[in-house]
Amino acid sequence: MPLVTISVHAGQLEDAQKARLISLVTDAVVEGEGFGAASRASTWVLIDEVPAGSFGVGGRQVRLDDFLALMRQRQAAG
Hints:
Macrophage Migration Inhibitory Factor, two-stranded parallel sheet
């Protein structure tokens, strides 16, 4: 039984985004395992919403606004 845990900032994803992420990750696990559709029913995906202020990168606290600003910078840089 595969268990995939995805940690995101609390409030980062809407329900529709969570549902899509769960579906796509499940598809990837099923394909990667090579057991076919039978493994789909036993594949678990947990989206862990981490409270504000509980993420850190490079020794620095990172909040959702910081993360979103970084993502915008990366998109703009292409």
